[in-house]
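Box 3.1. Reading complex inputs
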Amino acid sequence: MSARTVSHLRKGEKGIIKSFNNRAMSLKLLEMGCLPGCEVRLDAIAPFGDPICINVGGCYSLSLRLNEASVIELE
Amino acid sequence: MKQVNIKVALVGNPNAGKSTLFNDLTGLRQKTGNFPGVTVEKKSGTFRINAEEVSNVTLVDLPGTYSIYPKSKDETVVMDILANPKHPDFPDVVIVVADASNLQRNLLLFTEISDLGIPSVLALNMLDVAASMNLTVNAVQLAMQLNVPVVRINARTGEGVNNLKEAVRQVARSSNKRAMQYFYEPKGHEMELIEEVKGLYQLDNDYVALQYVCQHDNFSFLEQPVRAKLDTLIEKYGFDENNFLAEETVARYEKIKPIVSKAVKSEGASERPFWTRKLDSILLHQVWGYVIFALVLLLVFQAIFAWATFFSDWLDATAAQGIEWVKVTLPEGVLNDLITDGILAGIAGIIVFIPQIAILFALVSILEESGYMARVMVIMDKLMRRFGLNGRSVVPLISGVACAVPAIMTTRSISSRYERLLTILVTPLMSCSARLPIYTILIALIVPANEMVGIFSMQGLILFGLYFLGLVGALASAWLLSLFIPRKEPSYFMLEMPSYKLPRWRHVGFAMYESVKSFVLEAGKVIMAISIILWVLASYGPGDNMDVAEQQTIAAMPNASQEQIEAAVASIRLETSYAGEFGHFIEPVIKPLGYDWKIGIALLASFAAREVFVGTMATIYSISGDSEDVPTVKQRLVQERNPDTGGQMFTPAVCYSLLMFYVFAMMCMSTIAVVYRETHGWKWPLIQLAYLTVLAYVSAFAAYQLLS
């Protein structure tokens, strides 16, 4: 069974970042402040279900596509 | 008093308030250009620090970035300057602007800049936002831990800006370099690699040497042999860049975490403003999101027509009076004709559109300022992907409504080369403000001003329709082109959503002022040149053709009044002039579109820039018409008769055909030039010119044939 990722979150649901499953993308996410141990919450879903907006660590809002969100694995 | 010149660079995360601070510091003493050798737009400005010696500071605003490792073309410029002390913009001091409400992430960039060894000042912005999230930031504590001056500022109110200037002055003055203290220290075998690079290229900073290794392909100042040598070194030490970068970033955060937890006190729940989330739930809504976006766009176009008309009419009348005055005041003769019928007539045709352009740029910048544009990118991303584009392509497309040149430059924030190219190729289809004069005049000819559909004026709706047609054309072409151009890299979309803000009116004012200034100056230059050339071509003809034709005309009209003869003579002289010959020469090509040779002259002239079209019409018709008084361009066009039918020349069929032509045609030298620069070659601008010309011709042809 594959790990639970941010793309599995439902609206309003929270999760804690555990790791990333894609090296190239993980650097980008790290630089934007998605750190392991950080809490994320799914805030909004764009029309047609993609991209999504997540709140990172309670301090800012990041929008990303579903396939990018599936890189972020949750605890 | 001593004068000191220093150079300062401004860096920071996107949305940290960098541009606002830039405006606070430099006010109207700013200009835009290009960084030497690269095509990225450069904003620079000057300010003074008055102390015992006067410091003249040149401030350069660098592109917003999350780290010194670039993710898009725009961001490569940051390190191209900061890693190269020989660069003309290499700063004496760097101001790092940090968003206090998100300090941990913002300090990542700061520690990287600091490790490069350039003296820096940390400007702590958005403390009010942090306060609203129950966060208090202790600047003194932060300054002690980071070992740099930290200045609390509020870029929106201008608070703390004087302290910031003072801090910059002190940092610039302290000549004795402090001992380098790195936030990040590489491990053993990386150290050996760094030492070798330092030795080879006479570098004294470890981190700069490391950047030579990691980023040499982005550094324009490194020659090919140097790059090749660095590649062999990477091989020799088995340096894995991807792994290393992730490790470095994590290590930096490890170091930043305790610093932040000491300096930032959190009391109670911290959360973004409630209404930002509330607004997002509406503006990103499945249905409402699009409805509101459509309404916003419709409002923009209504505003261009409804609000601007009053000013435009006034300017139009004033310009006509002004020309009249010049015509009467100057002694009669060739010079008088050249100035009034040639140059001034052309320029007056353009001045009229200043209000519309000002309003358009103001509205686009308000959309950007308020944070709404980021939401538009999100709701459009999935749609745009179908056409091979990206949510970020929305900004160039919307900016293209103002002008394709800066719009094409904004494509540099798109990290995928492929999506960027597609966006560049289709952006000129968005109706730019230079098309507004043409649209406005032609729409005014076919639709009465008072015709309404509900609360909207018919003219506004048709205008909206033309813009919409441009958008549809852009998306359809993107899709078609994507079938032919192979995609090589994956597509990304990661975007920080700024919280909603009230637009800073000063900023909007700057945008308006800049756009109007460059429109009047740039368009003015081209129009003046073309007006002079046209006037000469229209006033003189090959051999004595003009005189012969004049004699014949007079001989053929023995019973006509003086006035009728003068009008007929003016008209026949134009027809036999060089310009007339030229117009007749291309007539076979444009006849199927419903155009005569006079429109042909204007069409050809406007290949340089679209706005020339109206100016040329003004010049041509003021030369051919009777010159008793100076009517406005619109009046001249209404009076124009079709020599074949005797009816109005500008029938709905001709007007719609012209509208179609200008919706699609790529008639703008500046755009071609900017596409050449951005794609580094003639291939893409030529392909673009070709497909757009075909598209324009075919649709104009269809419009004329269907309607006449």
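In summary: Residues 23-31 of chain A form the longest helix (9 residues).
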